[in-house]
Design a protein that fits this description.
The protein folds into 2 domains: 124 residues, Outer membrane lipoprotein wza fold like, CATH 3.10.560; 64 residues, wza like fold. The chain has a 6-stranded mixed beta sheet, covered by helices on one side. It has 4 helices and 11 strands. The protein is an alpha+beta fold.
Length: 210
Amino acid sequence: MFNSKSIIPVVLGAAVTLLYGCSSTSDLPQAKTRASKTSNVDNYQYLIGPGDALNIFVWRNPEISGQYTVRPDGKVTTSLVEDIEVAGRTPSTLARQIEEKLSTFINNPRVTVSVNNFQGPLAEQVRVIGEAANPQAISYKQNLTLLDLMIAVGGLTEFADGNGAKLVRVKNGEQHTYNINIDDLIRDGDISKNVDILPGDIIIIPEAWF
């Protein structure tokens, strides 16, 4: 009898092959106590993304200060300036940009930008797909590890092949695929299987063959 459940691993495997068939497969080094020096995120700065809530404070001008949500197009509209492009900028860079625009209306403006409800740019979000308890996109945080990520998505389902999972990463414009052993990490407590996660990583967890 045809069993649609049995073809799920085949379909997922085929999708991975089509998407990442040209990438190399190897093992990642064990996670460090901080981001690896090769990760290029030692001086990581948070970039604003769609969905972020921005607190824009203009010194001595409370009437034009306020909280604004970044629209899906990466822009916000403030009291005096319409459609400011904010996605992909750091809060301090955005503050200087707003000061420049407000200088048309205010003498020597001083602006502070803070962020709530962190989402980050889509390109920097870490995605977990497949047999996680709660597959989702996670906003990247400095020094994020695989263990942190699995806690965020609620671990594995009972049908997951955690040791068959892959991490897909883009480096210098090329896609690379790495073996990761999630079963050993979270079910056996083998902390040596913990690895660093970088902005934009994709974790693919297949279903186990029974």
